[in-house]
Amino acid sequence: MSTKTICIASGKGGVGKTTLSINLAMALAESGQRVLYFDADMGLANAQIGLGAESILNIGHVLNHLVSLPEIVLKTPHGIDLIAGASGLAELANLNQVDTSNIISQFSSLPDEYDVLIVDCAAGISQSVLSFLEGCQLRVVVGTSELSSIADAYGLMKVMVGDLGLSDFFFLPNMVENERQGAKLFDSMNKVVQNFLATKLNYAGSVPREMLVDSSWRKATPMVKLAPTSVMTTAIRKVAAGLMSHRGPAFSARGVQFFMERT
Ligand SMILES: Nc1ncnc2c1ncn2[C@@H]1O[C@H](COP(=O)(O)OP(=O)(O)O)[C@@H](O)[C@H]1O
Ligand SMILES: [Mg+2]
User: Fold this and answer.
1) Total structural domains in the chain?
2) 177 belongs to a structural domain
3) Could you tell me if residue 56 is inside a domain?
4) Most buried residue among 25, 64, 178, 193 by CB atoms closer than 10 A?
């Protein structure tokens, strides 16, 4: 069995990585996939809030060698297994390569089998984010139409192409007005990437701005459950299907891969 590994990253913070990760995880779980969610934002971990779970142990305890990774896997009420992130620990926000590789390789020792792993990253281009991007088969850069988000998304993609040698990744526009505006944002980003980075972005759709997202966070109930027929949920399902049907690139030659020893 092999696990499809999906890394969700962004240049700028607050563009919706966690909101989309949670709802993609839910959409996949509802379609019968066994999903593991890794909250890899070591600075501002909040996936457990959105997933309605409370964890005493988190990745910080693993990094401090107090427990091993399998011991912190949490069953959430929505049927997704969660590896909780550590919040507010500045030293964890900037992990070195040894620690990051160590975490990634520990995934191979998890007892349960998963169809999908979602890695919800911190924003930006820290060492750990780059290692997590390298360690996954599918990479998704989330961005909005805000100018600073566009600039920072491009900055991240530039590092992904130039420093990591990656060429096969998605750009996922979030908080768009409608599908057309999402496609337009994708196209303009894709043009810049083709012109300056000599590669093409993958498209899996976009996600609209939706008023209910705030209350879905407050109620700890993902949008896919709270509003199963909403435009946003429909868009999320489409993105999930698009990601799953993508024939991910072969493992990159560099870096440690999630679940490498299992494939
Ligand atoms: N599609 C959306 N529509 C409306 N609000 C959204 C949407 N996606 C995210 N948000 C809101 O944007 C803010 C940042 O989202 P979050 O998922 O925490 O971003 P990130 O993980 O990238 O920092 C949150 O307040 C969230 O409710
Ligand atoms: Mg987040």
Assistant:
1) 1
2) yes
3) yes
4) 25
Contact 40, 119 (CB under 8 A): yes
Contacts of 238 (CB under 8 A, 6+ apart): 204, 205
Q: Would the CB of 174 count as within 6 Å of ligand 1?
A: yes
Scanning 83-140, the segments in alpha helix (DSSP H) are 90-93, 97-106, 127-135
The mean pLDDT of the chain is 93
Q: What is the pLDDT of residue 215?
A: 97
pLDDT in tens, 211-246: 999 999 999 999 999 999 999 999 999 999 999 999
Beta pairing partners, 116: 4, 35
Residue nearest to atom 10 of ligand 1 (CA): 16
Q: Is the pLDDT of residue 263 over 60?
A: no
Question: Whole domain around residue 229: which residue ranges?
Answer: 4-258
Is 70 within the bounds of a domain? yes
CATH, residue 151: 3.40.50.300
Order of strands across the sheet that contains 81-83: 74-75, 81-83, 35-40, 116-121, 4-9, 138-143, 169-173, 201-202
pLDDT higher than 90, residue 15: yes
The DSSP 8-state label assigned to residue 64 in this structure reads T
* Band (2; pLDDT cuts 50, 70, 90): confident
